[in-house]
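Researcher: Next entry: VacJ family lipoprotein (Novosphingobium bradum).
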Amino acid sequence: MTGLLAIPAAMMLASAAPQAAPAPVPSTAPAAPAAAEPAQTAPATSATAPTPVPAPAAPGEIVVSARHATKEDPLAGLNAKSYEAIQAVDNAVVGPVAHGYQKGVPGPVRSGLRNVLRNLDEPVSAVNYLLQLKPGRAVKSLARFTVNTTFGVAGLVDVAKTKPFNLPYRPNGFANTFACWGIGNGPYFFVPLAGPITLRDLAGLLLDRAAVPFAVGKPFNKPYYALPAGVIDSLNDRIEMDGQLQRLREESPDPYVATRDLYLKQRRAEVGAICPSHGDAKPDPNLPPRVGKGVD
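Model: Predicted structure:
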């Protein structure tokens, strides 16, 4: 994500600090007569430099904001600590496990498992398209589910995105429906398992997960399915986001702020693609898709 974030200018005016007046040199000359005009005394100056003022951002440059509470992120301090703790766990446990899964499980198998989980989400996507008054997209989601379940061997192969069907994967969920209904983001959080998320999106995610068993039925409504499915989905996402995660850590002045701002921009773009009046209808073309939510 080179170029996504810029390092703000700092201390650029430090060299402009006024210098204190030099101390007078003692003189042995006799004192001036009383009638003489008194010497002018240099005005007192402060040795403290003025507060540096950041230079204005260049066109197209994104200046990273500080870790202070904002309207979108009222719990910034707590979220930043949560982010740091989760990153430490990721470095020690999640990352190595995901890399082991990537090396130990062949790519076609990992891709097949990902396709199965995506296919199971299609009925929920269709329901939400109907709630968003997008019946044409709802029909396409149901068509993808039917084609991949039958011709794609229960969804292992994403046949629907190929010719002659030409039905690409277009994820949808209750969070997008809430946005289309005019419900705002609510406060931003960085929480375990979900990562960066807003209150609206967290409520939508929980509804999505609860709706899959009802929409698909057996055996996916059993507890023994939910745990391994969630683990596999998380590992696939962690592998997919590895490059992006490393760039955020290495190239951003503040990875927490960069992660937050990127997530909010991505969500505005996703909502805008469905309901332009409630999201960003013309997002930055260089904005990467959110992990697991890109269109094939």
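Model: Note for the record: The chain is about 50% helix and 5% strand.
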